Amino acid sequence: MADKKAILYRMILPDHTCPFGVRAKAILEEAGYEVDDRILSSRADTDAFKAEHGVETTPQVFIDGERIGGSDDLERYLAA
Questions:
Q1: Which residues of 11-48 are buried (b: 16+ CB within 10 A; e: fewer)?
Q2: Which UniProt keywords are given for this protein, alphabetically ordered (predicted)?
Q3: Which of 24, 33, 58, 78 has CB atoms 3.0–4.6 Å from 6's, for a disulfide?
């Protein structure tokens, strides 16, 4: 079986770490995924990412090139 890999985009600003991003990373690691943890470290980075991907929120998880969504979406995906 191939290694399970996921890409996680999450926001970590100097004054704020997104708790949903922390949760999504923990969920992925518990499920055995190798996480490519991509930090959005400024409001501008975060806004640009959301505009590029047409999403309203971070974190966003991608598995096998498919956007899964945020931490709630990830839980549903892994439970399916």
A1: beeeeeebebbebbbebbeeeebebebeebeeeebbee
A2: Oxidoreductase, Peroxidase
A3: 33
The model's pLDDT over 26-64, given as tens digits with 9 standing for 90+, comes to 999 999 999 999 999 999 999 999 999 999 999 999 999
Cα dihedral 69, 73, 75, 79 sign: negative
Tokens of 10: 């999450």
Q: How far apart are CA 12 and CA 29, in angstroms?
A: 18
Q: What is the pTM of this model?
A: 0.93
Which helix (DSSP H) or strand (DSSP E) does residue 32 occupy?
none
- The amino acid present at 36, given as its one-letter code, is D
